[in-house]
Structure prediction request, 87 residues.
Amino acid sequence: MAKEKATITVDRAKLAEARAVLGVSSASAAIDVALTELLRRRRVLHDVEAYMGTPPTDEEVALGHVCPDGVDLADDTDWDAQWPAGS
Prediction:
């Protein structure tokens, strides 16, 4: 991926907090993560807006009534054991 050197002005406290939260040592890494997340969120928002502009088909509505309370989706998988916190 091509990178571009840039000089920016940032709030030092925000940058320090972002680096700590993300566990990165450089300002560049924190800003790269922030830009990646911003773009991801914008893409999701764009997709949601596009989806909301299209009414559901009769088939999609019917599919929503197949398991309205979600009880049939329950299983005995111990998801906390599968993905322990911090792993």
